[in-house]
Amino acid sequence: MDFGGYCNLCQDPFEPTDGMVNAGGHVWHETCFVCVQCFQPFPEGVFFEHEGRRYCEQDYKTLYAPCCSGCGDFVIGRVIRAVSQSWHPKCFKCVNCHCELADIGFVKNQGRPLCKRCNSEFKGGAKKFCAKCSLPMDQGDHITYKFQTVHAHHFNCSKCSKQLTARCREKDGDLYCLRCFDNMESSICGACRRPIEGRVIHAVGRTWHPEHFVCSYCEQPFEGRRHYERKGLAYCERDYQTLYGDTCFGCNKPCKGDVVTVLNKSWCIEHFNCTACDTLLSSRGGAKYIDMDERPYCKKCFDKIPVELRRRLKKQAD
User: Greatest CA separation found in the chain?
Assistant: First the structure.
């Protein structure tokens, strides 16, 4: 027997003891006939070919098979492509009556497949689709929440966690069952979202339990101390100055109280001193400090600087 020829993968010749696989007009060593993706032998010899390359079933599905929008499994064989999705023929059903649509046709309504009979009902306004689950809604089973029409049962009461019905109520963006809503006589805490029965803190456009009104950065309660607001958040003085306050060029700490802002820098008013002699300067009137290389000098110290150095620095600044 002539064992001439070469393996289609490794290009080595075949030996008399080598196992051989013949597929698609090519010959492989048994050990070379593997999936091009995972390099494992084909289970039970089953493989799928794509553009001349052979894959095991799992890798072929992962790489090339569409996923059914109905059951979530890979689609092998006939594929129904509709409403921008892929389906098994048996999974492509009317979203209202669940009849199979693959062979009877369908109507696209708001991005959802319907049989012609059900589409007539929706077209007449008798039914609507839920904006959350995309399924049809019966009369008396839906609510309008955040400008969308949805099934009420998708939500729970913000207080007792009971599943809601269409009789629920909305307050400050939260939903409540009718019983909890009727029992609410106090404000809702902006932190824990629970009713406030005792002392109330009003700040940054919301109400708070005193112990829940804390600095947005260090999370320490204010406990009556002054707070600073920025973009709807509250901060203690220390964190506000650290995050957003001016830093003193003199002490390198956040400026407190009045701030001197000159020469593209900021100073605590008590730290605005002459660069040379530390004499306290004034930002008013302009004549009480002199700009030298973007640093403040009193006139006495400025006059001591060599004329040539002053000219050179002025020329560089210009």
Answer: 112
Residue 217 has pLDDT above 80, yes or no: yes
112 Cβ neighbours under 8 A, 6+ residues apart? 83, 95, 129, 134
pLDDT tens for 159-176 read 999 999 988 888 888 999
Asked whether 84 and 76 are in contact (CB, 8 A), the reply is: no
pLDDT given at position 9: 76
Instruction: For the domain made up of 127-184, give the CATH fold.
Output: Cysteine Rich Protein (2.10.110)
20-123: CATH topology? Cysteine Rich Protein (2.10.110)
Count the neighbouring beta carbons within 10 Å of the beta carbon of residue 69.
18
Residue 26 confidence (pLDDT): 81
Same CATH fold, 200-244 and 127-184?
A: yes
Quick one: 200-244 is in which CATH superfamily? Cysteine Rich Protein (2.10.110.10)
- Is residue 180 within 8 A of residue 160, CB to CB? The reply is yes
The highest-level CATH class for domain 247-317 is mainly beta
Cβ count near 154 (within 10 Å): 15
Cα atoms in the 13 Å half-sphere on the side-chain side of 135: 11
What pTM does this model have? 0.30
Q: How many CA atoms lie within 13 A of 140 on its CB side?
A: 0
Task: Report yes or no: 26 and 53 within 8 Å, Cβ to Cβ.
Answer: no
Closest-CA residue to 283 (of 274, 227, 112): 274
pLDDT digits (tens, 9 = 90+) for 234-289: 999 888 888 887 778 888 777 777 788 888 888 888 888 888 898 888 766 444 78
